[in-house]
Amino acid sequence: MCKKSLIIILLFPLFFAINLGKVAEAKRIVSLAPSITEILFLLNLDEQIVGVTTNCDYPQKAEKLEKVGLFESPNLEKIISLKPDLVLAPDSGQNSAISRLRDLNIQTVILPSQNMKDVFESIETVGALTDKEKIAKISLYKMQERINKIKKRVADQPCPRALVIIWATPNTIMTAGRKSFINELINLAGGKNITASIDYCYPMISPEFVLDKNPDVIIFGNSSNSKEIVKDLLTQPGIRNTRAVRSGRIYRNLNPDLFLRPGPRLIAGLEEIARILHPNIFITKEEGPDEKT
């Protein structure tokens, strides 16, 4: 199981709070999530970053920054030693660390990450906190333009039924339910998520459930699912008899961080999913679907 791809989505939100006051001279920022680090780089704040988690690996420059522990267990002593004037944290999995930092009067802001609206608001929030409102506004406008372009191109197309497999064994599948941003990506890309009726973010389902819903497309969202695991899963009766398997529409070569990490690159993930769901309207190499398994 690939922690860097799944760590953000496996934990449910514990609480949510944002203080939108602008931080005076925010020159020492600590990021406690890969998606937040990507937002900081998007807004040209890389020179102000003094610490990130070991899971923060994009862009490449982030790998060289000072590390403050794992996403799920940030090192408080290390964070404090960096003397940050702003700590940016995700809305799940870090309530104890956040409480301690606030007790020490270190300004700590929680950024939501459960859906596309949250991602947009987080970018806007970071821009407001760091005097980067203009860059944030331009970035959000460009992101929305890309979304609108996809929506327009798929508007009159049939809606293929899709299954995103986040993690799997031959008998158990973790997928994306109605409350996940992955479900939203599938909808925006002109598809129908076969698990949209499940009122959870990331439910576990069986191969028999998959056969009942009979997806047209199956997308593997975790590169740590080896070819052997994929092969074993696809030979299960509930999977091998689906339209997706019979037609060869199985995809496992996408970069999972594009659609499992709730940051700015979700738009690229949306575009990848749209290309897979609608190869007939994305003809060129640049627009075509990724290589099939």
UniProtKB/TrEMBL annotation:
Keyword Signal: yes
Keyword Signal: yes
Fe/B12 periplasmic-binding domain segment(s): 28-281
Keyword vocabulary terms for this entry: Signal
Example GO biological process: cellular response to iron ion
Transmembrane regions: none
Xref: InterPro entries: ABC_Transporter_SBP, ABC_transptr_periplasmic_BD, Vit_B12_bind_prot
Matching Pfam families: Peripla_BP_2 (PF01497)
Family from the record: Belongs to the bacterial solute-binding protein 8 family.
PANTHER family listed in its UniProt record: MOLYBDATE-BINDING PROTEIN MOLA, VITAMIN B12-BINDING PROTEIN
Record protein name field: Fe/B12 periplasmic-binding domain-containing protein
Organism: candidate division WOR-1 bacterium RIFCSPLOWO2_02_FULL_46_20
